[in-house]
Amino acid sequence: MIHTLYKLLSGPMMWLAVILFCAGTLYRLWTIFRLVRRKEKFICSYLSLRYSLRSLVHWLTPFASLNMRLNPVMTVVSFAFHICLLFVPLFLLAHIVLWEQAWGIHWWALPDLVADIMSLVVPAACIYFAIRRIRKPEVRYVTGVGDYLLLGLIALPFVTGFYCRMQWPGYGPVMLVHMFSGQVLLATLPFTRLSHMVLMWFTRSYMGSEFGAVRHARDY
Amino acid sequence: MAEPAEKTPLESIPLAEPATALPVADAGIEAGVQALTPRTIADTVRRVLGAETGARLKAYLSTCTHCGLCAQACHFYLSNAHDPSYAPIGKIKHTLWELLKRKGQVSPEFIRQASLIAYTQCNMCRRCAIYCPLGIDVAYMISVVRRICRALGVTPLYLQDTVNSHSATHNQMWVKADEWVDTLQWQEEDARDEIPELRIPLEKEGADIMYSIIAPEPKFQAGLIYKAAVIMHVAGVDWTMPARPGWDNSDMAMYSGDYDIMGRIKRFHFDTAARLRVKKIVMGECGHAFRSVYDTGNRWLGWRMPPIETQHAIDFYYDLLTSGRIKVARKYEEPVTLHDPCNIVRGYGLHEKARYVVNALCEHFVEMTPNREYNYCCGAGGGVINCGPPYKQTRMRGNSVKARQLEATGVKVLIAPCHNCHSGLEDISQHYHLGLEVKFLADIMYEVMEK
After folding, report:
1. Complete domains list, chain A, with CATH
2. pLDDT digit string (tens) for A198-209?
3. ipTM of model
4. How far apart are CA B408 and CA B446, in angstroms?
5. Is residue B11 part of a domain?
6. B329 within a domain of the structure (yes/no)
7. Which residues of B touch A143 (CB under 8 A)?
8. Residues of B in Cβ contact (< 8 Å) with A136
9. Distance in angstroms (rounded) separating the CA atoms of residues A68 and A78
């Protein structure tokens, strides 16, 4: 039973998740660009590479913007969270081994201890975000059930992955949960608020361009 | 050079209690709400969102992660005891989120609240735009809500009255055509007592500069026209003012969401400069008018940038001082502080030039903190002060943080190079007993320049 499920999850389901992620991302981009072309063409005439980059660099460098300096804990946690979230799935040795087995390709892997720590940073950050949502009135006020579910959805593959890595009791079925939750996260990403992973580059660039090229002021 | 103000804000000004239930009676909003039916609301919401919004709104709404990091930017939030309903995203929650979620199926009462939030609890100052990590423009989203409210006829009475005046007279304050010319001649006559050869040239075709102002100047601040005329005369500027409508550069239609009228009056203003064949327009010390000319109105008309070079007074004074056309006889001695108006600082980056001008004119300049792009809004801009007396308490309670910031400078002369800021800050000074004298740059320049 477990073996069949493993086959299913490591084969067709993985493909499905990747296809949904890619297609979903392309669909989101296509709908946004179509709207720009149909209704807000002027956006393109204000976009400036220099000021888009100025804005992106200031918001992708820790403490380079005023708001990051005002919220140091949030800044550290956010950066750690995003870096770990992106790096662990791609540079974990156990994942690279799978790539090697399937397609014979491999690349640099994170040292085990570093990977272990980074895997734990993600759920820890999710707990911090959840506590922040509960404790800070201005965040609680705009938080819905979906925001907590998203945090859970992100934390789950990392918690289960770490569980399997440690080979704690019953890690076999947990591996299935790990794979499935990771696939759900990947497949739904373009359709949830996590789509900021894709859209942020454009909203940030537009704000940066407006502030830099038109308004001659800082947006960070 | 500027000296930093005291770091710690003084504690003598208490933060207001949450003021969600401030009672207001507004005949404009009441009449609008009475006329609403669920059907008209749903149809109008769908029409405005469908026809006028696109990629920006969609991207902003789906990108927002509800992190609440915009809250600290808003003076309404900071001043109302951190009541989250005043946070920028809190205001969107009560307006656009619901309108979209319910596809416009909302009650007239909902529209009343949305109108109060959009018109009177947000100055569209864009301070939150520089606080959002994802680059979301809440001021734009509020402008969409205003557009919906305007389309539904639910606009504050006083604000709507200024828009009606724009529409009927091409100026904001029902200034009649003969009153306009009469006021200019009156100011010219007074100024000639001081400088006998001074003129306020009217309708001079081919002049270098058309000087345009906002209607409150001829209505009740005519002395500013006098001072501008003296500055122009001493600097030897080839300038003119229109004798016919088209002289008012202000734009309350931009803030009420009446973009058809905004387009008409902006076009008329540019057309007047074209009719006079001037090289550029110089505008008085007004922030929102600059936003309308440089950012919003020109774009509505399809111009990426203003079709005729348009210069704000700060920029113009900077040129006059750096080129030596205005010389300072004796610097202003009393310590001054400077308020950075949103629409020309976050809107056009004039903060460094403003500092040059202040330092050139004044002996002792004290910075308020925060300053430049990070300055707190005056609480009057974005059309909020134009919503009139019913909302004065909303403005005052909504900006105790500004009062604390001003008090912390320990300075008694406040330069506010913007009309709305000027009036709003005078109200704040009075309400919080700060005893500030609020001045325009022109007031000080006129006082200290060689004549």
Report:
1. 2-214 (1.20.950)
2. 999 999 999 999
3. 0.95
4. 28
5. no
6. no
7. 66
8. 68
9. 10
